[in-house]
Write a structure and sequence with these properties.
By secondary structure, this protein is an alpha/beta fold. It is built from 14 helices and ten strands. Belongs to the fabD family.
């Protein structure tokens, strides 16, 4: 059997219609979706299939929706005896990875990320926080520019995601992000793109949510993982459930070190890196780190079958 690393997308990869084809094709997916509706107490699947987009994009809906699709696909692959030897996820996607690694039951994970989304929404006043993607600027130059903005304007602005070479996401107060757009272009950034998000995620402005989230994490029956998971906060492998819990709390206000994680995955000599879930964002990041990397994206029936055929044919 081929050695596979599964990677799971985070918030921003959601889209209306996500998971519907799988729901209609596979009875086991329908069962998982209905169990999720029952656990959450509302029809998440209807929001996923029909929208409206603004409602699906709300953090408390987008996060469980993405985890649900990723988990359903993982279960379909498991039935074909296709499992990862390593796993990770981008931000929210780390929870899908932990479900795949059997550290947490998917129903518990759904409820936890729903609460996580609500806490993230309420941690900072709506409309006063922002994020932006910075393209084509070295980390050192970017950090110097952010430090100047912090010292001159007394605003919070920090690195939120280190995604791949030439792509870094910043997060902070809206005023600071607005100031950064011009300053970073002056420093040499090719583009600075404001992101459509509801708050300053992965910055110190999320710390007010951490204590409440820690209490929620403590309520879950966690187990050690069955396979290593690369943690967003450290970019290192983790298997111990107590360490995982602490890192998930820290993840709320810490940078996502995804470029480092990809580099480590590529050193593990896996036969392919497989993005499991809606969208193709992470596949693109992997290719920017190493364009020769073997990658698959599994988000619908044809792409699911493509991976199954490849594993069986080559395995």
């Amino acid at each position: 059997m081929k050695k596979l690393a599964f990677i799971y997308p985070g918030q921003g990869s959601q889209s209306v219609g996500m998971g519907q084809e799988l729901y209609e094709k596979f009875d086991e997916v329908k069962t998982i979706f209905e169990q999720a509706n029952n656990r959450l107490g509302y029809e998440l699947s209807s929001i996923m299939f029909q929208g409206p987009e603004e409602k699906l994009t709300q953090t408390e809906n987008a996060q469980p929706a993405l985890l649900l699709v990723s988990t359903a696909i993982t279960e379909l692959l498991k039935k074909q005896d296709i499992r990862p030897v390593l796993t990770t996820g981008h931000s929210l996607g780390e929870y899908s990875a932990l479900v795949a690694a059997e550290a947490i039951d998917y129903k518990d994970a759904l409820e936890l990320v729903h609460i996580r989304g609500r806490l993230m929404e309420s941690a900072f006043p709506a409309g006063q926080g922002a994020m932006a993607a910075v393209l084509g600027l070295e980390k050192e130059e970017l950090e110097n520019t952010l430090e100047t903005i912090r010292s001159e304007h007394n605003e919070v602005i920090e690195i939120a995601n280190l995604n791949c070479p030439g792509q870094i996401v910043i997060s902070g107060t809206k005023a600071a992000v607005d100031l950064s757009v011009h300053a970073l272009k002056e420093a040499g950034a090719k583009r600075v793109l404001p992101l459509s998000v509801s708050g300053p995620f992965h910055s110190s402005l999320m710390k007010p949510a951490a204590a409440d989230f820690h209490n929620e994490v403590e309520k879950i029956a966690w187990k050690n993982t069955t396979i290593p998971v690369f943690a967003n906060v450290t970019a290192d492998k983790v298997t111990d459930h107590q360490e995982i819990q602490q890192l998930l709390v820290e993840q709320l206000y810490s940078p996502v070190r995804f470029e480092e994680i990809i580099e480590q995955l590529l050193q593990e000599e896996v036969d392919a890196i497989v993005e499991i879930g809606n969208g193709k964002v992470l596949t693109g990041l992997v290719k920017k780190v190493n364009r020769r990397a073997k990658v698959f994206t599994v988000q619908d029936v044809p792409s699911l079958q493509e991976l199954i055929d490849w594993v069986k044919e080559e395995g």
